[in-house]
Amino acid sequence: MQNLEQEYRVEMTGISKSFGVVSVLENVNLKVKPGEIHALLGENGAGKSTLVKILNGVHQKDSGKITLNGVEINPKNTHDGQVLGISVVYQELSLVNDLSVAENIYLHKLGASKFWMNWKQLTNDAQELIDSLGFKINASAKVRSLSIVQKQVVEIAKALSEDTKVLVLDEPTTVFDPTDTQKLFDNLFKLKAKGVSIIYISHHLDEIFKIADSVTVLRDGVDTGSMDVADTDTDGVIRLMIGRELKDLYPVRQNKIGEVPVFEVKNLTARDTIVHDVAFSVRPGEVLGVAGLGGSGRTEMAKLIFGAHKKKSGTMLLDGKEIKTNTPVCAVKHKIGFVSEDRKEEGVFLPLSIRRNISVTDFSPISDKYGFIKVDNEYKKVLELIEKLNIKTPSSEIVVNNLSGGNQQKVALAKWLSIDSKVIFIDEPTRGVDVGAKIEIYNLINAVAQKGVGVVVISSDMPEIMGIADRILVMHKGTFYGELSKEEFSEENILRYSIGKPLKQQQLN
Amino acid sequence: MALTLKQQLSTPAGILQFIVKHNTIIIFLLLVIFSALISDVFFTSVNLSNLLKQVSGIGIISIGMLLVILTGGIDLSVGSMVALLAVTFAILVNIFVLPVAILITLVIGFALGSISGYLVAYQKMAPFVATLALMTIARGLGFIYSKGSPITFKTPGGEFMSNFANNSTLGIPNIAIVFFIIVIMAIVMLRYNVFGRLIIAIGSNEHASRLSGIKVNKYKFLVYAISGALAATAAIIVASRTNLGSPNMGMAWELDAIAAVVIGGASLNGGKGTAINTLMGVLILGLIGNILNLLNVPSYPQQVVKGAIIIFAVLLQRFETK
């Protein structure tokens, strides 16, 4: 705070960076005032993360200038960044699973100076910090035992454990449900009031307009503009992000929805999870949305139906005939598909080629009775799907790890389209996917439904689920609490059902 | 990928890339050239056929090891299994006619491997632990059934096997032919069959495999069972070469097999590795032993050199991922 007259806390001017021959950033400017929430937007690969990593010392800039409170800085590593008061919460969690919450939060102190640590003090401090954020987490618990939401909270607490002047959050809400997100926002407003500069990276434009004061947009490593949020709108920002006019984010739904349900579930109860008494049906051509808070059992419900979790009771009907899915193998045999929310761990085979990823669900059409693969048939089928899904790749032999998030997601979907699924469960279809790819995935979901498939989409992104679903079922504590028809779609209604409250007009009646 | 070989080799970076990509084959060829230069005896048919005979046993179990490692597992029991099954075969060949003896030995190998496979796939035991237990059990059983001493072949069937194992067809030792046939089968299965596809998928991401409807347990079970059957094949071969089955056979062979697979560029995390490269790994290890023998280097320094080669080969592979 030595230089109070400085208008900007952080000033990055003319930043350029290339990795080898690939230029990632070109002459980028980013200016953030004290006590400001500044949104940094751009599609995947636009250079947002690299810019942030230059600010806190992970990467070094090739040219340009960074000042903090008017003083030029050149952080050489993350330690330099920390000393300067720059904390970053990364998109990928960077916690040590086998240490406690408190130890993780103060990890940087564990290696420093003192030989003896006051563990009690450490745990108390950590507990206080977490309590002040408004989340319930035991500071002495092992990180391994936490849910992914709690881990994200610990990650944020870790960033705040020091005298932070600049806080960078890279997609902090991807795993949060609306209530958690609101809690996070409340905390950000508190920090803002204390004069902390916050740089906020997100794909959720509605979040940006809720909390940010100003915004900088990157496209392909060039900044396409900085402005006050008040001076722009969603369309304006998207235009800067993708460089073209965006007509509609969500496709027009004009599907013929069948009368007879293709898939029906009655009284389904899980053996090991909170899912109980689930009943619903989905008709051919219908996109059924499933909303609810994190931890309400949406993913568990899908995994239960898919046979990945054990059932206690209940019946399932496919085309009117009762089926059993005790393992995923049975589910796949009945042409039920499941796209996991955890793309990297459960969705795709990162080290394998696109071809090997897509073929894996069913070899019967492309192999003989001894299991020998008819390579020509395989190529034909895979190339067709690559084209149909517009997967951007030079060939079918590219390793999936080298694709962008959006294209990886399309590969995960392609796997299920290749077996002509009758019902597909898609859990968080666009998590960590940029706007351009989102639109393509929405169109794809629409096209799949048009073919007469029953599509069940689970999503925490409320505008998304309202945009693509024909009706929405809301989960609360392991079962469906309410159903919303298209006319009843609103964030408020979804939220009310999510927390187990009736809709407003129902209260009036 | 569109580059022709000539274009690729025109730049230093391209040459390096080429070397790294084909490092096992290049190391193998360099060793062959080096051996030929350093010893007059190396390129004689006697030496070469000796070399092939020496590596065939370990080579066969290395293929089984490759399948297990591709799924992300490990099979420590194969060395001891060779001992137990060699003893078993020696006992059986003295009782039954040859085809029956061979068949029963193979079935027992498959069954023993199935125990590991069952423990790993269905009881979720760590492969290291399950096969470590089987390793001790198999070695112990080998000593029990042989009463601690080698059992010699006494029947015409045994004599036939002994002749087969020590003779050559068209200049190639018969047992090397058996090894090569197994390698070719592995290449074909891994490249063109659903079986290979699926075990590689399981090794590269078990979660995603389950959620793709792959019968993960079945395939994990199968690779250990196949590894057991291949250990039986190796056992029959090594027993026939020496005309006896001894409980001391196959000592630490599992480690040589793992080394061969790793030198061949496979990842112990699973999902990566090929049969042709494992063949190269086997030949590289065999060559090192062979040339050091020709140079009269005693066996202890040989071990040091072997270890150094393993480190060198794996370091080279690190460039590949970058």
Task: Give the low-pLDDT segments of chain B.
Answer: none
Q: Determine the mean pLDDT of chain A.
A: 86
Q: Report the sheet with the most strands of chain B, covering strand number, pairing sense and barrel closure.
A: 2 strands, antiparallel
What is the second-level CATH architecture of the largest domain in chain A?
Answer: 3-Layer(aba) Sandwich
Radius of gyration of chain A: 24 Å
Number of domains of chain A: 2
Question: What's the number of extended β-strand segments of chain B?
Answer: 4
Separation, N- and C-terminal Cα atoms of chain A: 58 Å
Q: How far is it from the N-terminal to the C-terminal residue of chain B, by CA? A: 16 Å
CATH architecture classification of chain B: Orthogonal Bundle
Specify the oligomeric state.
heterodimer
Which superfamily, in CATH terms, is the homologous superfamily of the largest domain in chain A?
A: P-loop containing nucleotide triphosphate hydrolases
Q: How much of the polypeptide of chain B forms β-strand, as a percent range?
A: under 5%
Report mean pLDDT of chain B, rounded to a whole number: 90
- Helix amount of chain A: 25-40%
Run of helices and strands of chain B: HHHHHHHEHEEHHHHEHHH
Keywords (chain B): Cell inner membrane, Cell membrane, Membrane, Transmembrane, Transmembrane helix, Transport
Pfam families (chain B): BPD_transp_2
Transmembrane segments (chain B): 25-43, 55-74, 80-113, 170-190, 221-239, 275-294
Protein name (chain B): ABC transporter permease
What would you say this structure looks like, in words?
- The complex is a heterodimer of chains A (about 500) and B (about 325).
- The N and C termini of chain A lie far apart (about 60 Å).
- Chain A is α/β, with parallel strands linked by helices.
- Chain A has 19 helices and 20 strands.
- Chain A folds into two domains: about 10-240, Rossmann fold; about 265-345 and about 420-509, P-loop containing nucleotide triphosphate hydrolases (Rossmann fold, 3-Layer(aba) Sandwich), CATH 3.40.50.300.
- Chain B has one domain (about 50-320): Orthogonal Bundle (ABC transporter involved in vitamin B12 uptake, BtuC).
- Chain B has a two-stranded antiparallel ribbon with strand order 1-4.
- Chain B is an all-alpha fold.
- Chain B starts with a helix and ends with a helix.
- Helix content of chain B is about 75%, strand content about 0%.
- In chain B, about 50% of the residues are buried.
- Chain B is globular and about 65 Å long.
- Chain B contains 15 helices and four strands.
- At the A-B interface, helix 11 and helix 12 of A face helix 10 and helix 11 of B.
- Chain B: Its main location: membrane.
- Chain B: InterPro entries: ABC_transp_permease.
- Chain B: It is found in: Cell membrane.
